[in-house]
Amino acid sequence: MNSHYNCFRPFSHFIMETLTLAPFPSRGISSRYSLFRRPSSRRNFWRAQTTVSELANLEAQSGPKPIPLEISSVEEALMGFISGRRKATEVAQAVWKNVVHRGDTVIDATCGNGHDTLALVKMVADKLGKGCVYGLDIQQSAIDNTSSLLEMSTEEHERKSVQLFNVCHSKMDEIIPKENPVRLVAFNLGYLPGGDKTLITVPHTTEMALRAASKLLDSKGLISIIVYVGHPGGRDELEIVEAFTSSLPAETWVGCKFQMLNRPVAPILVLLFKK
Ligand SMILES: C[S@@+](CC[C@H](N)C(=O)[O-])C[C@H]1O[C@@H](n2cnc3c(N)ncnc32)[C@H](O)[C@@H]1O
User: Fold this and answer.
1) Binding site membership of 139 for ligand 1 (Cβ less than 6 Å)
2) Which InterPro entries match (predicted)?
3) Could you tell me which residue, 252 or 20, shows the higher pLDDT?
4) Contact between 102 and 122 (Cβ < 8 Å)
5) What number does the ligand 1 atom closest to the CA of 142 have?
6) What is the pLDDT of residues 21-35, one digit of tens each?
7) What values do phi and psi take at 200, rounded to 5?
8) pLDDT of residue 239
9) What pLDDT does residue 72 have?
């Protein structure tokens, strides 16, 4: 089953899976992430062929407005990014969905307002109590914001999968049990939106955290980093992220970058995949 989610599965599988995502407008927030099951019958096959925009059109004609998809397929997110309709954060979350399995252990290294933590909870939590999200932030207000968002947007079994820590992410190896192989470590660098803009991630601790993350990460896992270069210190942080990425051996790591070349301060997505 898990092999279906392997990044190197056949392209035809990938297309089939990415087309199975569809909104579930009649339910609450948590169901926005619902995935229709993989198409098994001919009818479901054609259901899966319905594109997201077709669904939106159908909804618009026949009733209430569709709830926008929180996490799109990689294909849709990437095309959206290329055509200026999707943000780097959306591409990142769409990629996570192809790497992370239900029951996995993942880390949100910068919880902030909790949007990434919430997305990760929806990917890993299961009713058997497997799946674990560790959320870290250096500001207590960010931990509080994340906690409130989870309270509003998750079911009880999902909330149980989350542990939040008011701690610097450079100390993640002191928190995560060594026996838990980690599938994903997500960094969304910079400052807390709506918070104190002087409290930002800084190159030194970011580098320490990346080093710790690279050791905790399991094979076929991903480190995802969004870097903001529009604020003071942002470029220095990008330099550190790039230097760290370049230092990783190509035999065991793939390091790549998504960057808008004609929008110099647009956020940059760096993905480090452990083979
Ligand atoms: C851009 S925000 C993260 C946004 C968040 N991922 C979300 O979905 O809302 C960056 C966060 O990093 C946190 N941060 C800054 N330095 C940190 C550090 N050394 N360790 C952990 N978190 C840190 C900030 O407090 C801020 O909340």
Assistant:
1) yes
2) MnmM_MeTrfase, SAM-dependent_MTases_sf
3) 252
4) no
5) 27
6) 333 232 222 323 222
7) -125, 165
8) 98
9) 83
Check if the beta carbon of residue 119 is closer than 8 Å to that of residue 93. Answer: yes
Residue 26 Cα to ligand 1 midpoint, Å, equals 33
- Among 10, 113, 38, 116, which residue's Cα sits nearest to residue 71? 116
Distance 152 CA to ligand 1 centre (A): 20
Q: What is the mean pLDDT of the chain?
A: 81
Helices (H) and strands (E) in the chain, counts: 11, 7
Distance 113 CA to ligand 1 centre (A): 8
Whether the CB-CB separation of 142 and 174 falls below 8 Å is answered with: no
% pLDDT > 90, the chain: 71
- The domain segmentation of the chain, as residue ranges, is 1-70, 87-274
Instruction: Write down the residue that tokens 């026949």 correspond to.
Output: 62
Tell me the CA–centroid distance for residue 265 and ligand 1, in Å: 19
Instruction: Say what the pLDDT of residue 70 is.
Output: 57
Q: Which CATH superfamily is domain 87-274 in?
A: Vaccinia Virus protein VP39 (3.40.50.150)
Chain centroid to CA 207: how far? 20
Mean pLDDT of 122-136: 95
| pLDDT average, residue stretch 244-272 | 98
Nearest CA to ligand 1 atom 21: 137
In a mutational test of the pocket of ligand 1, which residue from 110, 164, 166 has the highest number of ligand atoms less than 8 Å from its CB?
A: 110
CB-based burial of residue 264 (10 Å sphere; 0-12 exposed, 13-18 middle, 19+ buried)? exposed
CB of 138 within 6 A of ligand 1: the answer is yes
Q: Is the CB of 114 under 6 A from ligand 1?
A: yes
Kindly give, in sequence order, each residue whose CB lies less than 8 Å from that of residue 259, ignoring residues fewer than 6 positions away.
266, 268, 269
For residue 36, pLDDT beyond 90? no
Distances from the Cα of 184 to the Cα of 74, 78, 209, angstroms: 16, 20, 13
Which protein residue has the closest C-alpha to ligand 1 atom 12?
110
